[in-house]
Amino acid sequence: MPGIVRQALAVPAAELAKLYPQEPSDVLQAASRALAGVVAVETGWRQVQALGLPAQERFAALADRSLALARHAALRGAQQYLGRLMQLLADCQPAFGPAQGFWGRRPGRAQLPTVLREIDQVRGHLRDLLPQLDALAADHDAAAEELTAVVCQLRGTALACEYLMRPGTTVPAADRLGERALALTQAAALALGQQQLAASHRTVLDEQRGRIRDTVLTLVPAWQIQLAALPAEPNETERFSARDALETLLARLAS
Q1: Are 184 and 154 in contact, with CB atoms under 8 Å apart?
Q2: 133, 163, 238, 242 — which has fewest CB within 10 A?
Q3: What's the Cα-to-Cα distance from 20 to each of 161, 177, 179, rounded to whole Å?
Q4: Are the CB atoms for 140 and 197 separated by under 8 Å?
Q5: How distant, in Å, are the alpha carbons of 72, 83, 215 from that of 93?
Q6: Distance (Å, rounded) from C-alpha 34 to C-alpha 56?
Q7: Strand spans (E) along the chain
């Protein structure tokens, strides 16, 4: 319409900080950027609904990405192989029990080499999975960084909506701004929850990688070397040493 100035808002973060001192600087900067794309007199219902929409879409994509990471086959495989390794190591325990003697119970003299060969196979599978787990960790970190930015955008755009509701700001669809601000605030809360869940998944992933590197690929072969050095008829001290090392392995894998 003639006589109406169509100009995008220019609200510095420093000015917003005076109005919203409780908000962190990154949210204030995001709000300033959101307002920079707003022409108040042309902000109707559709424009209000579009505020923060790209951030919401990014959040939806990140949620799908995080779900795919959490369900990755490498994670399931590592968990299954670690469980199998613990079972195999536990099967070795009776061979070192003080009451049964060195070859008294399962696995016996004929069975123990078979169990040890399967332990080697499981270790190989876990070693092969490790690069995939490392790549998953990098993907988790990238997704977490992007999710942090999305949370900031959502909160910043919600704050921009609040700013547009202030008296003196001419927005044709001003009655829709409160609803939009609430929707964006709720989306930000969901994104924060997703951050916490992703951090939990990252912790599980780190624990798996640590068990493989520190125990499966280091302590288990060291125990196997100790076992190979035992005489055909180890004495009580040698059995105790092998059993103690085995119990340490099981404890490390279970922690």
Answers
A1: yes
A2: 238
A3: 13, 17, 19
A4: no
A5: 33, 16, 17
A6: 14
A7: none
Please give the structure tokens belonging to residue 173: 């669809």
The stretches of 20-52 forming alpha helices (DSSP H) are 25-36, 45-50
User: What is the distance between the alpha carbons of residues 124 and 127, in angstroms, rounded to a whole number?
Assistant: 5
CB 198 within 8 A of CB 140: yes
Helix%, strand%, coil% for the chain, nearest 5: 75, 0, 25
Rg of the Cα trace of the chain? Answer: 30
Are 102 and 95 contacting, i.e. CB atoms less than 8 angstroms apart?
yes
pLDDT tens digits, one per residue of 185-234: 999 999 999 999 999 999 999 999 999 999 999 999 999 999 888 887 77
Q: Which long-range contacts (C-beta less than 8 Å, at least 24 apart) are formed by 228-231? A: none
| Cα–Cα distance measured from residue 64 to residue 87, given in angstroms and rounded to the nearest whole number | 34
Side-chain-side CA neighbours of residue 147 (13 Å): 26
Which token pair is 26? 């990154």
Read off the pTM: 0.82
The dihedral built from the CA positions of residue 172, 177, 180 and 184, taken in this order, carries a sign that is: positive
Question: What does 139-150 look like in DSSP terms, one character per residue?
Answer: HHHHHHHHHHHH
